[in-house]
Amino acid sequence: MIRKFGKWEPVISKNAIIDESAQIIGNVIVEDNVTVWPGAIIRADEYEVVIRRNAVILDVAFIEAHGGVEIGEGSVISHRAIVHGGKIGKNVLIGISATILGKNIGDNSIVAAGAIVTKDFGANSFLLGIPAKMIREVSKEEAEETRRIADELRNKAAWLKI
Fold it and tell me: What is the CATH number of domain 2-160?
């Protein structure tokens, strides 16, 4: 479902794939080749949510524009993940049920499943725990694997079209 919220209306690229059960509400911009999977909710009012090109928003993810949100190019927001404000860099993997609480995550980072991010982290950060801590740098191979996962998911998203 794509709908207005007050005076704000989503702007969605004709090249994006949005599952019919996803909800995109209000001041949301969805760029080219973004895929939004079943049950995902993206909601914004006076603050904007921008989903950059080639990003993947998986099943039941929740993104709210608390102070504004940007999801970087090629990033993957996994199942049941929550992004409640903040900026997610390019080629970032947010793991299953991870939560971002209005913080910024640098390019090529990985947030482990279930982690809760309560402070900003720079590029190439591998984050784990509650609260999330950087345990090491993301390797080049891991960053490439995130790209491969995003590509694979975008290709599979064609199956969402009925």
Answer: 2.160.10.10
